[in-house]
């Protein structure tokens, strides 16, 4: 618990600095985190499958290295993600099965595209607000669910995927995320960074509730991947938290939702 807390106290300000610094720093951070995350993913699923590691690695790193181009020509990049592993499978047949190819494609989309959406959100008007909101919702939910679950948890939420998670903790995570979001909105309004009406604040708090649910599903989804291949954690880079995917699994599944909401708020 102490190690987990200390890691959080160091990691949260670092993430905040990266987000505040802007898209270039976030892009560089994405290259580093994306490279580590895809290697963690491939190492885990290699216990059962045979992913096309080199190709998948360069597809993820290349996505962040040429992020503005890849996001502008999104359909072209998706086509490459689908076509290149299939071509590689044909050229090296029968080294890779269709399952191996599918696992490779999934990893690239799961890590590369979902991580990349965070940078895209940052480029919106008031993008800083929305990216920080993403972490407030997800990590706020994780923290509250953890402590509420430890204090009051009795009913298991998904015992086969995550034996320690409880229904009480899950509810606490949703409530906690909404409270943190309300406080966050009021602080940002007080600082003059954003200007929201009461109705808009109410909508954002509701968004936080849905985001908290998605973050918990994202955590369980990552757990299902690990259980399917018999891995305990994706990595150990963050003491007390595990690897990059262990720490950002709840963020990844929430990112598309916050992307859509921030886009709608920025659409006249």
What is the H-and-E element order? Answer: HHHHHHHEEHHH
Mean pLDDT value: 89
Largest sheet: number of strands, sense, barrel closure: 2 strands, antiparallel
Question: Uncertain regions: pLDDT < 50 for 5+ in a row?
Answer: none
- Helix/strand class: mainly alpha
How many beta strands in the DSSP annotation?
A: 2
Bulk shape:
globular
Helix percent reads over 70%
Give Rg in angstroms.
19 Å
Number of helical stretches of at least 4 residues: 10
Largest beta sheet: what is the strand line-up?
1-2
- Which strand-content bin applies to the residues? under 5%
Distance between the termini: 46 Å
- The total tally of domains equals 1
Explain the overall architecture.
This protein is mostly helical. The chain has helices spanning 2-21, 23-45, 53-65, 67-72, 74-91, 98-122, 127-152, 167-190, 198-229, 244-265; strands at 156-158, 162-166. It has one domain (2-265). It has a two-stranded antiparallel sheet with strand order 1-2. Helix 3 packs antiparallel against helix 5 (74-91), helix 3 packs parallel to helix 6 and helix 6 (98-122) crosses helix 10 (244-265).
Describe, in short, the structure shown.
The chain is mainly alpha-helical.
């Amino acid at each position: 618990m102490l190690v987990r807390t200390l890691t959080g106290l160091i990691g949260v300000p670092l993430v905040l600095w990266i987000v505040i610094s802007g898209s270039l720093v976030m892009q560089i951070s994405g290259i580093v985190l994306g490279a580590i995350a895809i290697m963690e993913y491939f190492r885990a699923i290699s216990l059962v499958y045979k992913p096309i590691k080199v190709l998948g690695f360069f597809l993820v790193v290349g996505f962040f290295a040429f992020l503005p181009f890849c996001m502008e020509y999104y359909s072209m990049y998706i086509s490459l993600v689908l076509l290149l592993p299939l071509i590689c499978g044909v050229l090296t047949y029968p080294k890779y099965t269709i399952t191996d190819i599918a696992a490779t494609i999934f990893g690239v989309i799961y890590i590369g595209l979902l991580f990349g959406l965070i940078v895209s959100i940052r480029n919106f008007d008031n993008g800083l607000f929305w990216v920080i909101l993403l972490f407030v919702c997800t990590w706020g939910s994780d923290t509250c669910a953890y402590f509420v679950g430890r204090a009051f948890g009795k009913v298991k939420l998904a015992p086969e995927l995550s034996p320690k998670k409880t229904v009480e903790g899950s509810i606490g995570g949703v409530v906690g995320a909404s409270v943190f979001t309300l406080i966050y909105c009021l602080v940002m309004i007080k600082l003059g960074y954003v200007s929201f009406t009461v109705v808009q604040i109410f909508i954002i708090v509701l968004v936080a509730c849905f985001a908290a649910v998605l973050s918990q599903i994202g955590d369980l989804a990552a757990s299902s991947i690990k259980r399917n291949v018999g891995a305990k954690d994706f990595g150990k880079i963050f003491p007390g938290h595990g690897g990059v995917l262990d720490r950002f699994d709840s963020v990844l599944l929430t990112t598309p939702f916050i992307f859509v909401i921030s886009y709608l708020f920025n659409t006249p």
